[in-house]
Amino acid sequence: MKKIIILIILTICYLILNTYAYAASPSPTASTEEQINELKDRIASRVAQLNLVEKRGIIGVATDVTGAQITLTDIKGDTRFIDVDELTKFDGESDNGSFGISDIKKGSALGVLGLYNKQSRRILSRTVEELVIPKMLNGNIATIDSDNFILNVATDSPRGEAGKKEQLQIEFETTTRSFSYNRTNQQLIKSGFSKIKIGESIFVVGFADETVKNKINAERIIILPDIIKGPSVELSPSIVPSTGSGKILTPIVK
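-> structure tokens emitted (254 positions)
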């Protein structure tokens, strides 16, 4: 019986002390509740912004440059809008040694890395780099300049003249790697300049020469001897070969 009385007294004391402590603690004021709600709104807004933004990189060709905006056409043909700010870093070549947005011209190939906004579909650039995109072409060998290691390749691309097709000079350099496709074994076999023949189909990867128009410095060449020339490809010389001594050779027309 004494144990029961003691337990009842302890329970009453606990309830009295707990009630006093709850009464002594201050209730949140209206200003505190407003601050908490404001903090919640800020956090929710920040989370929403983070969900809308992601890192993204694209490669394209500049179609317009105005103020702090660059318009690009990417490799898929889509139009992209690039925003530039004071944190954007540029990498490229210019006459004064300092490359910036003013040095970007229409037709420049650019690589952009930045923050893509899914809502506005714009990219806030962090780096903008000027790129040199390799040229790729296929055609047939029209003439061979063995003295200067140059191939004149005829393609089926129009030159802008009625009835004429484009011909390009392909320079075979010391770093050029050439192969011949063996249809029987379905393998690429190492080849060389001396093994290339007029009329053969060719696939070239290289870079445009900065000094000579319609000339490409070849990086890779693949000869496709089993592929027949297309009917629209003209092998008659349209590029006058050079002797290497400054004299121009006049092609013989039969």
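The two ends are 134 Å apart (CA to CA).
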